[in-house]
Design goal:
CATH architecture: Orthogonal Bundle
Distance between the termini: 30 Å
Oligomer: single chain
CATH topology: MetI-like fold
Order of helices and strands: HHHHHHHHHHHHHH
Strand content: under 5%
Length: about 280
């Protein structure tokens, strides 16, 4: 409890307190910042940069989750079958999730490099591109590159959570469906999907929480650039606080970032409890 209070609860309350004061470089150490109430929140909400960052966060989250979940589900269906090398391949798949995000971000930054990146080399070798593309310094492609990197990081997480759900479905249901003449597609539609619904919703809710607050991967790859093309909400909060030293507004932006994540967390807990009661 002491650890939780010191590392989680106290920082949140300290940040909440700072968000209602006009804290900057001059008043940070002297503790003489004037009280502004909701003034910082109003400034942040009216800031066009915040609105753009919120939109980019939504795009980043939805774009990542759609492919993370779809690919993770497909891999879970694959590894739910018995075939030679299943255990080894499953362990190798987890490497992308086990690696520190900073390492993964650095690897993808090199892969998307406009001069010597393997992505350009592969696309040019296949004849899909005639000239190199500077993925991370072009506003049109920078966000896409970070989404691709985040998909790679998150696919194993989705797979490892969905696989036990598939393994918990009784084989007798599929055998009975087969005897009744159901095809594989019908079994998937009427048995697998309905019974996987609780697990799938839990995975998606956790994915929203983890993806919406991604900072390190994007910071390593683009630092929020070019021209704010990848400045999602966590990057925006960082820039307000540590680039522009507007600590009060940065704290308010952090609270605004925390709000939707808290709602998602509450939804996850409510859904988990509801499923336990129904079970």
């Amino acid at each position: 409890m002491l650890f939780i209070v010191l590392t989680m609860i106290y920082p949140i309350f300290a940040n909440l307190r700072m968000s209602v004061y006009d804290v900057n470089v001059g008043t940070f150490l002297s503790d003489t910042a004037p009280f502004v109430g909701l003034g910082n929140y109003i400034k942040v909400l009216r800031d066009s940069a915040f609105q753009k960052a919120f939109l980019l966060s939504l795009i980043f989250t939805v774009g990542s989750l759609v492919f993370q979940f779809t690919i993770g589900f497909a891999l879970a269906l694959l590894f739910n079958r018995s075939f030679p090398g299943n255990q080894i391949l499953r362990a190798l798949m987890l490497l992308g999730w086990m690696l520190p995000t900073v390492v993964s971000g650095s690897v993808f930054r090199w892969m998307f490099d406009g001069g010597n990146g393997i992505i350009n080399y592969a696309l040019q070798s296949l004849g899909l591109m005639s000239s190199p593309r500077f993925w991370l310094i072009e506003p049109q492609t920078a966000l896409l590159a970070t989404i691709i990197a985040n998909i790679w990081v998150g696919v194993p997480f989705n797979m490892i959570l969905l696989l036990p759900g598939l393994q918990s479905i009784p084989r007798s249901l599929y055998e009975a469906a087969s005897i009744d003449g159901a095809s594989s597609r019908q079994s998937f539609r009427y048995i697998t999907l309905p019974l996987m619904r609780p697990v799938a919703l839990s995975v998606l809710l956790l994915g929203i929480i983890y993806t919406f607050k991604v900072f390190d991967l994007i910071y390593v790859m683009t630092r929020g650039g070019p021209v704010d093309a990848t400045t999602v909400l966590p990057i925006y909060v960082y820039q307000l606080s540590f680039n522009f030293f507007r600590f009060g507004e940065g704290a308010a932006a952090a609270i605004l970032l925390l709000a939707p994540l808290s709602l998602a967390a509450i939804g996850y807990l409510w859904f988990s409890r509801r499923e336990d009661v129904m079970a």
